[in-house]
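Side project, low priority. Logging it here so it doesn't get lost.
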Amino acid sequence: MTKTEVLDNYKLNVNNVIIDVSIEMVEDEPVPRYTVSITNMSNTTKLILEKIRQEFVSQVGSGLVEISEEKSLDQIKIQFRKELTVLLKKYFPSSDQETLDMLMNYVIEQNLGLGNIEILLKDEQIEEVVVNSSHEPIWIYHKKYAWVKTNIIIPQEERIRHFSTMIGRGVNKDISVLRPLLDAHLDTGDRVNATLSPISSAGNTITIRKFSKAPWTITQFLKNKTIDFDAAALVWLCIQNELSVLISGGTGSGKTSMLNVISSFMPSNQRIISIEDTRELRLPRTLHWVPLVTRLPNPEGKGEITMLDLVVNSLRMRPDRIIMGEIRRQKEAEVLFEAMHTGHSVYGTFHANDAEETVARLINPPIDVPKLVLPAMTAILVQNRNRRTNTRRTFQFAEILPSGEPNIVLQYDPVNDDLKRVGTFQVIPKKLKMFVGMDEKGMLKDLAEKRQILKYLVDKDINDLDTIGSIISQYYRGTLLVKQQGKE
């Protein structure tokens, strides 16, 4: 008899359709199994809803492959809803309005939405949803259990392709045999990549990276051991004193999340300009923040606003701080380093696995930034994800020496699961002394005060982003708050 261990069980509410989620470890299976079942809708009801859908298609002539090019998806949904109301009342005459609305939403999502993928997108424990083909179940990346196989299958390749086409249409992008690759985003901010067969030889694929509904905070990072108090205080010290920091790491290591978290350390009396492809950053309301987002070209290839356009434009907006979602290209990097040299503090993310690789990638093609300009960036904070344990940790903190080489000060120790001091500061104390008159004794005192506030946030379990922003803003007005917190 096959042995099954229930790892987790919880419920989801998707437009008043109650979904039961069970995560189980089945003997001899390599990964856990994520099973969803609708608890407030019988199989008979589902069969009737399918009959209603077929009747609607025959009456209105609005099948899946016949979504009008002239009408927006919202207009189609309005038409769909109007006609469905008549059919639902015909087959469910005794149902109340709440039940009819629930059935209506279910049919619409199954036919004009992403079907059962919508269920997975509603689960806040899921980070990634992956459709590999019509021949295997959908995979998910779960915050707690890493890669998990679901019991949801999209049975036709045409259906997967339809979902990709629908997503692309929503952002004026085309996916076809001639253009079999799609990068887009949903209205919710979730990032989507799709590929069509035969480029993906096993079948059509969809990969959705979910946009976190609640932003990560420094309190959560400290409690989860993503970063420790000493490193967090050190990064805060750099940010307060306008020292530029680059966050690097591999895919999924939490670079953007870390950037979001440390942005809360910025002073309220300075103007912050952020530049992203998709809005992911969310800063406290206490900050003077202007978010800018790139724009894709229209079907005629016009109207595109690139990252470089926004970087150049941001310098005309009198910024004190510039936050860049990700540095990818030579021109973007050149403009940002020029901004550092002209007195702006810059923060961004970059794909590299450690500090040495970060420098190597910056100074070699395709980025190819001269090594002599690197010291304008004071520090590199490296993030790492352990795929085996599904944990994210700060891996290194390094200064950039006048030669452009990295000086690693903090290094992650995987055996003890903590950051170790492996080097001495050679740059930060000199810059603090030169620009703000802070000697080494003052630096140690400042770091101790910051650790005290960070521990206060954790002890009081303060997770609200705006509350954290307010506390940091009050701290910048003087040390009185620090002393009060120390007495609590």
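Brief comment: The two ends are 57 Å apart (CA to CA).
Revisit when time allows.
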